[in-house]
Here is the input.
Amino acid sequence: MGFQVGGALLDFLVLSILRRGDAYGYILTQEVRTILDVSETSLYPALRRLEKGGLLSTYDMPYQGRNRRYYRLTSQGQVALEGYIAEWRQFKKQMDSLLGEDEA
Here is the structure.
C-alpha cells in the first residue's frame, strides 16, 4: 500500500533536494525515488511547472559531448519551500495527535 503522490508533495521534495545544491534531472529522479515511487514522466513535468512558476531556474553544462540541464532553486523557490516546510510541520503535528503520538 502506498499513498497517492500529489503535485504539492512532489514539488516539496524537489525544492527540498535543490536546497542542498543544483542537480540535473537524473540525479533528482534518483533522490526523489528514495522517498517516493515516481517515474521520470512524472518528474519532468513537475520540473517544467516549477520553472515556469519561477521557483527554479535552469542552465546547461556540457558532459561527454552532450548537455546536461541543471536545476537551481531561485529565491522565490526558497520562499515557497519555507511555506511547504511550515505546512508539513503543521500536518505532521496533526497526524501525530490523531495517532496518539503527539509530544508530551
